[in-house]
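Supplementary Data S3. Sequence and structure tokens for construct A.
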Amino acid sequence: MRKTFFAAFFIFAAFLGKAQKNTLLDGGFWKNNPSLETVKAEISKGNNPTQQNPGFFDPVVMAINNRASNEVIEFLLAQKGNTVDKKTHHSRTYLQWAAASGNLEVVNTLIKNGSDVHYKDSHGASIIGYAAESGNQNTAVYDALFKAGVDPKEKNEDGANLIHLTIANDADFKLLDYFTSKGVSFKDKDNYSRTAADYAAKLGNLQIIDHLIAKGVKPTDQALFFATQGSRAKQNGLDVYQALVEKYGLNPKAVNPKGATILHSLVRRPNAEIISYFLNKGVDVSKADNEGNTALMLASGGKDLKTVEALLAKTKNINAKNEKGETALMKALASGSAEITAFLVKNGADVKATDLSGNNLAYYWFNSYQPAGRPGQESQTDDFSEKLNMLKSAGLDVKAPQKNGSTLLHLAVDKGDLYLVKKAIELGTDINTQDADGNSALHKAALTAKDDQILKFLVEKGINKTLKTEFEETAYDLAKDNEFLTKNNISIEFLK
């Protein structure tokens, strides 16, 4: 009996491990351009053709984006669960991916099967808008969408037309001529008075800008901000910015519609040479955008210490706050590196600061923890520990409750992470502290737990089960209304 149990356990564990690693979600598998027979063989081994990864990419999207054969793509589309209206990454439908990749045959198949040609994803991008912005050069795809009812003069939420969205990739001006023939005007401006020449700066092709100038369309200062976008494969170099400022006479101190300077954009993909160029042009480092964020705050939430050093050298107030009351140090703790955190503390960042909600630095540090299993988790854990040591050395009481009375233990329970629950207790957090609503960590766990693991751990650690919320409810009372527990027949009698 014992041998049978362990044999069954290991078979189940092996199956679970296999189920967790779906070959059809492996980019390497698709880069080898698998045949239909190969794909079918993988499905027969238990690889799910409809499963989505944590980013909501599924095998159909992987196949489309890796230019798999249409035979393979259409076979996957025929699998139950892969409907034409299925939402994937950023809520995009298959038609968006197919149109962006220029796959006319699949586009036609999806339209024929009822895919909505007017659909917009979670970023507000339409089918044709996403295809245009992604660089699709196949005009037959646009023809198919127009035939299905899309208006060639469609504009996105910013008021950009299809020429605006395609111009940066249109080195031979084929699309410019094509869309012009459809009634789209290259002289149109978007809702923020930005021109086609501004949009052309995205990939730094100055010949396109010159061509548009010859046609009477000049770049505005906003071209500088488009230049910071680049693409996944390309980041514009200093020469592009120098040309925009010195050849075309654009203002390096300009702000965009969000109230940001070019430094706000540049620090997201830092290049020391380019940042230095604009600092020397007198761009105001202390200028806050419409949300109150300075370039230093944004840079502090990244990983590039040299950028933070360069900005801080010209910053007047290291403890400036945005509209949420967040400081550069809070940003560093939330998503930046331990070395940036240490640098800010060393240079006078206030470790006693709180945001407008009354959350202190311990709140930002604790929320920065990344669960095991994510890429780079080991180094993130090291950063997590280093940041804690810095905060404690600087005199911050990490056990102190936030303004609403919640402790690190409450935060840990909210995240449903046993490691953080143990960490909060290890740091000396009072296990029985109740927040402003009378909720202890056990109350919160009873409300949200998907299993009994954290609940039992808190009980084992001696948390008071008789504590009541402001509505006179015990943890047992709350657990009775937790559908995760009741539907899975998880006993809660130990909470009495």
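Construct B, processed identically:
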Amino acid sequence: MTELAKSSQAPLLSLRNINMTFGGIRALKDVSFEVMPGEVHCLAGENGSGKSTLIKIVTGVYRPEPGAAIEYDGQTYSHMSPVTAQAAGIQVIWQDLALFPEMSVAENIAFQTVLGRWPRVISYSRMHEIAVKALARLGVSLDVDRPLKDYQIAQRQIVAIARALIGDAKLIFMDEPTASLTQSETDHLMDIVRTLSASGVAVVFVSHRLAEVLEISDRLTVLRDGALVGVYPAAGMTQSRITELMTGRTFEYDVRSREVSANPVVLEVEKLSRPGLFEDISFTLRGGETLGITGLLGSGRTELALSLFGMLKPRSGTIRLEGKPVRFSSNRAAIAAGIAYLSEDRLSLGLIQPQSIADNLVIASLDRVTSGGFLSDDRKRALVAQWIADLGIRIGRQDDAISTLSGGNQQRVAIAKWLATNPKLLILDAPTVGVDVGARAGIFEIIAKLADSGLAIILISDEVPEVYFHADRVLHMAEGRIVNRFTPRDCTLADIEAAVYA
């Protein structure tokens, strides 16, 4: 659908004077927002800016304060309900996926087709057929009869996208849909979004990957601290300009790569292999060094990290920590030896969402907050207060659920959890997934300070600029092997990107 055709139509969705308050805090302040039929519209803003609240108002999860006006597909509503929104063709892919790990892929994709007011006989063959067709539309083939828990997070993300596409959708919200996808999967999703747009389906795209925003969007609505900054055409916009609009600040990164060859060796890995996952991995890591590992999802990066952390046992090869050979029987043994691992899946593996901020922060270092075998509330609160202050974590109360924090602050708590163990080696697996650009800058400032203090760090990311600007050296993995080694101060960003995305 052309820009001229879109602009000549009435909006599919029009929100006016949207206000929302939680506990005396204004989450949305007189926001107006509209989406045209067939438009790809980016909703941009830092975590906590009000994006998710606005989506939940459209989908009926929240009711806006009096005075709001909602028009959708020619109808006027004082508020939407979840049932009304779904019946009207509004679908959402949430960042946390909202899937059922114990159910099969087919059940996760097609379960809404068997819901209703009255009991009915479930046809599993029909659910199987629906799921296969939905995945085929994404160009993906999965065993739809296997439990979802058998699949990695990237495949789970695809299942969530397939589920959203099976309905007769007119408007789809995609909240960080590419956060766990490979570059090729992301490219394919972009093609699907363009196809949906051409067929008249509107897509509201929320992503912290600003290059994707510029590639796919027609227009951008920017929120900051719950208020509307403005609505802008994507044409002519730059990543730096979006960042400035979102945060009110500008960010410029310089290559950090330093010479650390005089520092003592902390970790030595020699010919480490686990057939089917990674082969013949060798490298050294020194104190105060940040070693970047990049490559597409499926390249063996996370599996290597899990082997260093004692959760996967290598078949052959040697790991030495401060010169001493180690072979961990479990992650507990790795933690005791001084290795910490921040998981790429913060929501389900990195943190326990219903538990308090304090409990999440101390869970890996209980020996430091116990006295005589019993938990000491005073020690616990002191330790939590120390790390909240040191990492600049913004919280209400220590006893609040971790789920009340923004993604950036949750990630800082996850980092603090491992720093509290006083590690010799910190492995950060995709530490900025689902974190906005402002919070990312803060996380990388923390990483730089930790390296300057002498901590050895492994930084894993599929976003090449992250390792290029923030690591001293970079290993490129593909198909379970190290295929390239780079020193950022001696090469360009384009050199590494060309190798990774070739």
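Residues 348-422 form one domain. Residues 183-198 form the longest helix (16 residues).
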